[in-house]
Write a structure and sequence with these properties.
- InterPro entries: Gly/Sar_N_MeTrfase (IPR014369), Methyltransf_25 (IPR041698), SAM-dependent_MTases_sf (IPR029063).
- It comes from Euphydryas editha (Edith's checkerspot).
- It is an enzyme of class 2 (transferase).
- The chain is of the alpha/beta class.
- 29% of the residues lie in helices and 26% in strands.
- It has nine helices and eleven strands.
- The strands form two sheets. It has an eight-stranded mixed sheet, with helices on both faces.
- α7 links the parallel β4 and β5.
- The longest helix has 13 residues.
- It starts with a helix and ends with a strand.
- It binds S-adenosylmethionine.
- The site of S-adenosylmethionine (SAM) has 23 residues, from α4.
- S-adenosylmethionine (SAM) binds next to α4.
Length: 293
């Protein structure tokens, strides 16, 4: 793959202004369900980690701030939580809305709210359909937050979005937010094909490219190739590209703490285990507990 192919100035479907929807061309959205696998078999470690911590803290009302096709939201509804799901991509939301329709006979799903909203304008967007709503927990998982690139080179949009997550949390509420181990990816130039979140049964190849600007890694581009031809429903391998801001662990910790005015309790997990138990994790998961007053 040539470098010209990797660093196109603008990919198809990405607007020049407003929220950038990397899923706008529908390619990733179409194959996403195959990539994440069966939602009923959400990886046991993930289900137990998330639902265990939410229950331990008495959380009931959860905002899934990057719901995508709705997989995390459905897992939480099945675990008895009340879920509001938002996402900026209508191509992804289409699949979540379809999933809710398919569950319409299950009373647990009667109160599932699905709406379009973006992190940049989260409190305002939520105010249009649930005025004044605050949540016991907000989740932004599956390496979603790293989709937000740094167009001003000072991370101001990322900082604003983290503050927006804090705003829609009740005092004492929890934010769950993750990123891949970009430190390791930058050093090795590779991304693990298997995700701790998903149960993809098809071979997944991920090509990793790192764009370094003035000595600083600015964008990681992952070219996914999923070979789901064996089930006969599709004849070609599915390919899609996603770009990420390569959050490094230590700077992300600082940015998160500042978004909560350095008053939140900040716990960090590695692949859902205590940090010290995993040497070279694929993901870091941060849990912020907003201060009580
Ligand atoms: C990697 S997908 C993960 C979806 C889901 N959590 C999962 O694990 O399958 C990332 C999601 O973040 C959403 N997203 C990216 N930027 C966003 C923004 N600024 N506001 C709201 N959603 C955004 C994308 O549209 C996409 O659905």
């Amino acid at each position: 793959m040539s470098s010209d192919n990797i660093f196109r100035s603008r990919s198809q479907g990405v607007p020049s202004e407003g929220v950038k929807d990397q899923y706008a061309d529908g390619k990733a959205a179409r194959v996403w369900k195959k990539y994440i696998g069966d939602s009923n078999q959400r990886t046991k470690n993930y289900r137990e980690f998330l639902s265990g911590l939410l229950k331990k803290h008495g959380c009931e009302k959860v905002l899934d701030a990057a719901c995508g096709t709705g997989i995390d939201s459905m897992m939480l509804i099945d675990e008895g939580f009340k879920v509001v799901s938002v996402d900026a991509s209508d191509k992804m939301l289409k699949h979540a809305l379809k999933a809710r329709w398919e569950k319409r006979k299950d009373p647990k799903y009667d109160e599932w709210v699905i709406e379009e909203a973006s992190w940049e304008t989260l409190p305002k967007d939520i105010g249009t359909f649930l005025p004044g709503a605050q949540f016991d927990a907000v989740i932004c998982l599956g390496n979603s937050f790293a989709h937000l690139l740094d167009e001003y080179e000072d991370q101001r949009t990322q900082k604003m979005c983290l503050r927006n997550f804090a705003t829609v949390l009740k005092p004492g509420g929890l934010l769950f937010i993750d990123h891949r181990n970009h430190d390791a990816m930058i050093n090795s130039g590779a991304t693990p094909g298997h995700s701790i979140y998903y149960n993809c049964k098809y071979p997944v190849d991920i090509k990793t490219s790192v764009l370094v600007v003035r000595g600083k890694p600015e964008i990681i581009t992952l070219d996914y190739c999923i070979d789901a031809t064996e089930d006969g429903l599709i004849t070609e391998k599915s390919e899609f590209r996603l770009c990420y801001y390569p959050h490094r662990l230590h700077s992300f910790i600082r940015m998160l703490d500042e978004a909560f005015d350095n008053r939140a309790k900040h716990s960090i997990y590695a692949d859902f285990k205590p940090l010290e138990q995993v040497d070279n994790p694929a993901y870091y998961i941060h849990v912020m507990q907003k201060a009580l007053d």
